[in-house]
Amino acid sequence: MNDKTTNMGLFSQDFIYKNLMGPNCLKILRELIKDIEIKPNMRILDLGCGTGLTSIYLAKNFDVTVFATDLWIKPSENYERIKQFNLEDKVYPIYANALSLPYADEFFDIVISVGAYNCFGCKSDYLQKCLLPLVKKEGLICVSVPGVKIGFDGIVPEELTPFWQENMNFYSFQWWHKLPLVPWLEAIKLLECIMTEYPNSPVYDEAIRSMNLTKRKSKCIS
């Protein structure tokens, strides 16, 4: 287990709440990376980094270089947060569309995406065309997406209606598991799938308490 994922004191609770864009991305990130090896000086793509919380966390705790990439938050805004933690030489805020990422082939050791992949990765050719070329051989892609326990068409479940926006792309685990991926890829190893149900999830409770939850708008690309 990655003992560094237990470092809870990096951010104040107020700082976290002010910068959340949904469920607590830090708690999700810690769960996502707990069983993988992250070595110093690795290059990590934080895809859909939002306000940069996960990027700062990774750089500070693991001494890695993070490319904090987002389409919705201005790089200058993220840079101000990065400077608060003296990480100007470890976290690079990048404005980019996930469908046309400006990076060299085999550039990254790890790609991490917390709560954003459903906005751009729902087509079967996305992984092959846009993401896999950027990852080194034997590299890792670690993704966490919001979703639903049971898929639905048309009628939004009552529990989701207060928060629902067009093109949110919330699917079930079964939907993702059946998504046709890369024809030439021999195997994609599913390490673990953890389903956390709302409303009994602390990460969703914190999102609801966050001041910013109702102020931000989704702009999902599909």
UniProtKB/TrEMBL annotation:
<dbReference type="InterPro" id="IPR050723">
    <property type="entry name" value="CFA/CMAS"/>
</dbReference>
<feature type="domain" description="Methyltransferase">
    <location>
        <begin position="44"/>
        <end position="122"/>
    </location>
</feature>
<dbReference type="InterPro" id="IPR041698">
    <property type="entry name" value="Methyltransf_25"/>
</dbReference>
<dbReference type="Pfam" id="PF13649">
    <property type="entry name" value="Methyltransf_25"/>
</dbReference>
<protein>
    <submittedName>
        <fullName>Cyclopropane fatty-acyl-phospholipid synthase</fullName>
    </submittedName>
</protein>
<dbReference type="InterPro" id="IPR029063">
    <property type="entry name" value="SAM-dependent_MTases_sf"/>
</dbReference>
